Amino acid sequence: MKKTVKVVAAIIENNQNEILCALRSHQMSIPNKWEFPGGKVEEGENYQEALEREISEELKCKIKAGDIINDNTHEYEKFIINLISIEAKIVEGTPVATEHAKLIWLPKENLDSIIWAPADIPAVKEIMQANEGAPQ
Ligand SMILES: Nc1nc2c([nH]c(=O)n2[C@H]2C[C@H](O)[C@@H](COP(=O)(O)OP(=O)(O)OP(=O)(O)O)O2)c(=O)[nH]1
Description:
It is a single chain. A hairpin with a 3-residue loop joins β5 and β6. The longest helix has 13 residues, at about 45-60. By secondary structure, the protein is of the alpha+beta class. The chain has helices at about 45-60, 120-130; strands at about 5-10, 20-25, 35, 40, 60-75, 80-90, 100-105. The strands form 2 sheets. The chain has a 4-stranded mixed β-sheet, sandwiched between helices. Strands 3-2-7 form a 3-stranded antiparallel β-sheet, with no helix packed on it. 8-OXO-2'-deoxyguanosine-5'-triphosphate binds near residues 29, 36, 83 and 119.
């Protein structure tokens, strides 16, 4: 049976209505695909704690994690992922790519211009749809 992994991902928004997108490097699993930064939830952690830890390890900045905006289960060839996407704000520092090939801030309306990890697509759609109804 395939293993199910629980992964939290940060939807980090800046003051310009842009979202932080991270490119997985060619050495990582699911290489060369874009994702929201984050990682696996460890035992004893709640989602927000896991996300705040992952971001400080991975991007060397501090975030405050908020509400869940999407919860998607996706079956990859080798495992099943339960990807929980959570709103977040940077409270200290500037994100630095320590593992990713690249970090970019993308306006919400352009989120569909890059190639996402398949599990992320429902969250991307949700963010874009919510943005369509928002005042500019
Ligand atoms: N952080 C993150 N991971 C994602 C997203 N979408 C998605 O399919 N994933 C997958 C990639 C990884 O297989 C797993 C996250 O694990 P991880 O962040 O600890 O990454 P990792 O590269 O160390 O994982 P692995 O190679 O050991 O499997 O979830 C996403 O938006 N954010």
